[in-house]
């Protein structure tokens, strides 16, 4: 009898647990399964699996837009550097973005600057995770 009750409870609650999926998990699942720009549904609303940096870089490839994106990436990288969580490769990506802009390849400059800004943003997330989970790095 107990087994039957447990099975019934599990079957009844399973949809509840599936519906409790966080937005981040739904976003990451859609992004992994269907790629950039995939449309997914979460809590009755539709969203697009696009990083904010991809949206910012999805503008006309002009020198002004490339410079604006590079400036945003540098500002975000400065912010993460102040926290001590700057990624080594971000500086190189910014240099490549500036070189692409100097060569007149504004689309490449936009894309590289967006990538650098993304890395800086994830570095900030990494910092906050480390601050709230520091005990996980202490040896037992």
What are the main properties of this structure?
140 residues; 2 strands; 6 helices; 2 domains; mainly alpha
Brief overview:
With 140 residues, the protein is mainly alpha-helical.
Can you walk me through this structure?
The protein is mostly helical and 140 residues long. The chain has 6 helices and 2 strands, in the order ααββαααα. It folds into 2 domains: 2-49, no CATH class; 52-135, no CATH class. It has helices at residues 2-19, 23-34, 52-57, 63-83, 88-102, 106-132; strands spanning 38-42, 45-49. It has a two-stranded antiparallel sheet with strand order 1-2. A hairpin with a 2-residue loop joins β1 (38-42) and β2. α5 (88-102) packs antiparallel against α6. The mean pLDDT is 87.
What share of the residues does DSSP label as strand, in percent? 5-15%
Residue-averaged pLDDT: 87
Distance between the termini: 43 Å
Biggest sheet strand line-up: 1-2
Question: Which consecutive residue ranges, at least 5 long each, have pLDDT under 50?
Answer: none
DSSP helical segment count: 6
* Main beta-sheet strand count, sense and barrel state: 2 strands, antiparallel
Order of helices and strands: HHEEHHHH
Q: Number of folding domains?
A: 2
Shape: flat
The percent of residues in helical segments reads: over 70%
The secondary-structure class comes to mainly alpha
What is the CA-atom radius of gyration, in angstroms?
21 Å
Signal peptide: 1-20
Keywords: Signal
Protein name: SoxXA-binding protein
